[in-house]
Design brief:
By secondary structure, the chain is α/β, with parallel strands linked by helices. It folds into 2 domains: about 160 residues, Leucine Aminopeptidase, subunit E, domain 1 (3-Layer(aba) Sandwich); about 300 residues, Zn peptidases (Aminopeptidase), CATH 3.40.630. Helices cover about 35% and strands about 20% of the residues. The relative contact order is 0.11. The structure holds ligand BES, manganese (II) ion (MN) and zinc ion. Its cofactor is Mn(2+).
Amino acid sequence: MKFSARKVEDASKASSACAVLPLFKGEALKGQAKALDKACGGAISASIELGDFKGKTGEGHTLLGCGKLKRVLLIGCGEKKSFDRAAARDFAKGLYTALNHLDAKDALLLIGEIPVTDADEAWLLDMLARDLTSRAYRYTETVSKPRPPMALNKLVVAGTMSKAAAEKALATGAATGEGINVARHLADLPGNYCTPTHLAAQARMLGRSHKQVKVQILDEKKMRELGMGSLLSVTAGTDEPAKLIVMEYNGGKKSDKPYVLVGKGITFDSGGISLKPGAKMDEMKYDMGGAASVFGTMTAVTQMNLPLNVVAVVAAAENMPSGRATKPGDVVTSMAGKTIEVLNTDAEGRLVLCDALTYVERYKPAAVIDIATLTGACVIALGAHATGLYANQDELAEQLLAAGTESHDRAWRMPLWDDYTRQLKSNFADLANIGGPGGGSVTAACFLSEFTKAYDWAHLDIAGSAWSGAPKGATGRPVSLLTRYLQDRAG
Ligand code: BES
Ligand code: MN
Ligand code: ZN
């Protein structure tokens, strides 16, 4: 979808397939609304008087034919005094629903006179562009008759900001939305399509399309040379080759320390020899949701040309049982030199991540954030609404929480206490890969924290937030949070 901004003196003289008029509940028509009402013979005020349009937040009502405007779409904004960010999001949802029903190819949104109580117009435009872009996502890859795309492909916004400022806000929102869609697409792809090799090819494509992005793919041979025995133990049972994918975006000065993103990219998690039960096992194609969000965030960051350096690393592998698979009780040696007793081959995410987290030490990062569908326990603890956040540094935690609040892609901080780390003691290795029945999301994070002492680090457990079960589909989280975080770092 293309977004642009323009000034509109008199909407009734503008031409568009659809003029969108936001209206507060119970407010007298004024300005553009009054002019439009007059131009369409009082149809707007009549709709309100008859009660056909009540102005509830997100409510849509279409009127036909008004000069060069083929349609006028009224969208309710509720009470003016309670039009806050949450109401604005409901407005956006209603706007999408109404526009998706119409066959209009372009629309003119008269946003000028709806102030958000706790945000400015730039926030509103950014949110609208992001929301409309991501709602327009369709999964098409492996279905013969996919849901048709939205007819609308051009939205012109008439607000009170300058054209340049409005278009900047729209462009950043659209870039974030496109990043979300990249993540959703990769995550929704079936495991037989989205293999580690496919993810590597995606990275190469990103590298080809942006000259500031350098891509490097480490194969199993290279990983063996580096001593990544933990990561390689996960891929031992599958025929799909594992890949460590490295994408370096250089938007900042050479001397700027990079922000490093590390994504869990298990393209299918059967559990391995500690095989998962059959119910919903198909959803384990989403076990590369962390990797998908890394690709999505890189898409947004490169599109915005953010003036900072970002290194994205994806640990991509498939977790399968076979005669060569790692067995419970096996001891493996990580790149950091720590030995790990694999008590459960289904706790594989931490095994691939620990080696990737050691690998990124070489970048002397400003901060490292890993993103992983790490534990079922996180789904029990927080459900779908909050991503689990862990950090070894308070300021980093605060910054990520703030980015989540700002972008409505929220996280909630969890503890990394030694009391939990003690659950990982092993008689046969430096660490066990599971910590008993209690606090599973925390012990998984504590396992990772043993490998991240060299830098400021945060871990996002997105097991509950990365996809939804009904209707089944990827959410694209936490692309918004990560993108916002990086935008904030870029100043
Ligand atoms: N990918 C799963 C975590 C998961 C499960 C995410 C369900 C979303 C929904 C992870 O690899 C895993 O299997 N974790 C185990 C850990 C356990 C063996 C300590 C789990 O959560 O059951
Ligand atoms: Mn698992
Ligand atoms: Zn997993």
